[in-house]
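Cross-check.
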Amino acid sequence: MPRFSLARRRALLERASVTFRVVEIDYTDVDSQTTTRRIAIDEILTSKNGDTYAKVFCSMRRELRSIRLDRITRHRSLCKTYSVEDLELAA
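Predicted model, tokenized:
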């Protein structure tokens, strides 16, 4: 059971996005594999079917990714920051 509601997690990630903080997450993929990743958040949006996604630069994959917020099992903001240019270069 997640420690935070989806709305609370979204608010925390939006705050990290506004302050350009790198976030470390534990993420469980569709195959139930959990990995620890460091992400830089580009934007957070809700799909037509109601799932909430974040468009992020994932340092583990070294590419832009879309991740579902309900698959994040742990997160913490790090002291490290990023710039908008960092995300544009990754695109």
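The longest helix spans residues 6-18. Strands lie at 21-28, 34-46, 52-58, 63-68, 72-81. Passed to J.P. for a second look.
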